[in-house]
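User: We ran a pulldown and think these components assemble together. Before we commit to crystallization trials, I'd like a predicted model of the whole complex to look at. Sequences follow.
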Amino acid sequence: MSAPFKTSRRDFMKLAATAGGGLFLGFHWADAEAATIMEVLDETAVASGNIGFNSYLSISTEGVITIMSPNPELGQNIKTSFPMIVAEELDADWSKVKVLQAALDPTKFERQVTGGSGAVPHSWERLRKAGAAARHMLMEAASKRWNVPATELTTENSTVIHAGSGKKFTYGELATEASRVPVPAEIKLKDKKDFKLIGTAVRNVDNLDMITGKPLYGLDFYREGMLFAMIQRPESFGMKLKGVDSAAAKAVPGIIDVVTFKNNVAVVGKSTWQVNKARKLLKIEYEKEGNIESTADHDKLFKDLLNSTDAAVVQVKRKDGDVDAAFKSAAKVIKREYQCPFLSHSPMEPMNFFAHVRPDGVELVGPSQTPEAARNETAKLLGISPYTVSVELTRLGGGFGRRLKTDYVVEAAELSSIMKAPVKVIWTREDDMTGGSYRPAVRYRFEAALDASGNLIGYKLRGVGINAGNCTREDNFPSGAVDNLLIESIEHKSPITTGPWRAPITNFLAFAEQAFLDEVAMESKKDPVKFRLDLLDRAKQTPVGAIKYDIDRMKGVINLAAEKSGWGTKKGISQGFAVYFSHRSYVAQVAEVAMKKGKPVIQKIYVGADCGVVVNISGANQQVKGGVTDGLGHALFGQLTFKNGAAEQKNYNTYRMIRMKEAPDVDVAFVNNGIDPTGLGEPALPPTGGAVANALFKATGKRLYNQPFANQEQMKGVKLGEKM
Amino acid sequence: MAQYNVQINGRTYEADVDADTPLLWVLRDNFGLVGTKYGCGIAQCGACTVHLNGNAVRSCTLPISAVGNNKITTIEGLSEKGDHPVQQAWNEVDVPQCGYCQAGQIMTASALLTKNPNPSVEQIETAMNGNLCRCGTYHRIREAVVLASTKMK
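Assistant: Here's a predicted model for the assembly, 877 residues in total across the polymer chains.
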């Protein structure tokens, strides 16, 4: 980060004088807490990219308000919600707002990342201040022109109004004069109850481009003279490249060259199809480099490692009270294990990137959740300064965490440097699915100790994760509500590559925890909702150790979902409950299953969510419904297995994804508590598996311990998901 | 390699490509019609859906040599101004998330509604079941097809 940018009054006037025709407002991300140093910048200075601000809005004399959206857009709708926040405080006419995707620029923007459901929480305050400061300056300009105090002025729809005289100025008319007004040191933000735009349903700013097929995505990027490339990577994890016979591939028309680097054999040519045909003619030899693992090996090692007594293997993450004593004195002990498979991210747009490595710098264009990391990794590989690498962000055809990795960007740059030409590397679906970076496979063991009255007096969780030493969350509920508690984690290192997958770890841990708590509630002879509420009251009254979740917010969503679903009042419907805190938000869900012709049918899922202020209700509803559908689909069907180090599912014909017929109704309600936004890209996903498993149990009397549910013995003959 | 003349969106396009090149890649690499998307290459996801004489087909498995004089419509040619009733409905219902699959969804939906202007929810689900949406926008797709059917009356 560059230091906060400060201009003297003289510099400021100079910049303003050259601004000509509009107001350009930059604001300082670096000064996170204060975020009040607002500077007026001329367009040349903005374009030159060497000024220390992080985002900006501009108002043209014609009244067009342009707002830059710095974060990668992959369907979380940030490109609509970020500008809405600015426009709200500006009182802008939304129909005249133009949104542009910013390229990577760490000198202007901070956290140009899509991940962790963090963009809106991170930027909320600063985006508001950017809009509010501009509004203040526009009002000052009007006040001067009319010679009336600014306190007599109001704003709406990109217009400053003097109610006393009935006079009006548009923002466009005031923009030039407003740019000469000193930037306010203190910026007054709106009272949330006065929001007009925030909380409404605003359509995705890219809708028209998306529904008419405009070139928005990385794969749509074409450049004159660009080469097309596909890369054959080792089929099995644990193998490395030994040699290649590429004569036949090279003979295919349109093929320019076949080159090898690291473990990659790259076929480079003039069109996607020619390259795709040629790669099938490669004769490649691999040799063993590490462990060659299969799913059957993992099934065994999970069980072995769960029993480990080796202190060097078992990582103790939280220990409260005396667990051994509690379990010794228990009237009842419940012990259950849960397992989840590897998953592919499978965004609809497979991995791809364009790279042009030139002597004077590198141009990268494509879909990335972490453009800055991609830039830095590329610079490191090529031994050049990151400042000579530019990254232009296309829209992402999904990400789900896969595009937090930079492998597919760096390899494109490496290939371009070898070819000394602009190259677009295209992954086929098979490359994407077999190419690694999966949601790790994990197995958990939960143990609960109940006293004679059914009180939870002891709780243990141990998890084994493949390349996932963080597979347990020590501060998750019910931590803080149980006197004696032990949370442990064990990691198995594997050559099979893993990475974050939407709601990392919690995408499965939530199911295991919530399914286990459902059983514990039953053994305690308590209603599952009341059981959780009682534990939360207990945590509030006599907390044990640190409590990292907000008890009132969790209770809020529990009560909301219970109320909306008519919990416990419906006849002929089996309801299952789950509640989860992930990232910064809270989501409770009630899944409903009905028996039709003797088979369970998932009919509806009710959601109570607390993400603080909802910025765009249309986008928020989408995030929740999509998250639930995603969570449900992968709990029901998702599974990637390995044989001799190679993924056995290579495309959608064998890797099953949820389809329209299998997507039940989702009813969404939000808690309206007025707190600043806490994020919604991921938190709706984790609770779904648990709510559905608990509802299926109520309907069938059979518990589900492993995912995918559809493959489990107890679901034989059930077309899970279909409405029948 | 051979010369092919194909009728797309009311125009004739020419390409010199291998006979087995899927229409999808000719649209994208040769004609710059990139609205038709690559998703799986084996007709499982529907992202590459186009119309062939008004029927929804998967362009990723349709070789250019098989296209002949049949009329192809892609998302770019569905309407002149992006205002086909299905496109209008997609915007009004605010369907897309990442948006990558939506051109294919729209092409499947518009072919359905041409044949059956008033489909039941079950018929909609059957027609749309071959189009994957990884973001899970199925609820709004369903809603938008219903809305589009009212617009087409």
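Chain A touches chain B through 62 residues (CB under 8 Å). That may be worth checking against your pulldown data before setting up trials.

User: Thanks, that helps.
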